[in-house]
Amino acid sequence: MTLLEARTLFPITQDRAYLFSGGISPAATPVRAALDRWSELWATDPAQLYREYSEQWEQVRRSFAAAIGADTSELANTDSTSRGSNLIVQMIEAPERSNIVVDEFTYASSFHPW
Fold this sequence. Notes:
Layout lengths: L2 H6 L20 H16 L1 H23 L12 H11 L16 H4 L3
Helix pairs in contact: 2-3
């Protein structure tokens, strides 16, 4: 997919550049369609969401691994950046008197666990 093709997936790019995506970013058309489908299932057959959940998350992991040239065993899916950051903090044993450096835009949930 070219950059131009990717831009067409985001309707907001038709009339402006959206430069702040740290808190919330514009949804791509396929993402909106998936959310619409999810909302419909939530209203009509919530159990179907559970039946599909594992395979969909695994597909995301495979796709992302392929996109960045990684093996799926090197990746983990989390439901938020905060949870991912907390998992990392729990898995890394920081040496005594070490420092964690963050910039002024780092979310509190990413640095407070340290």
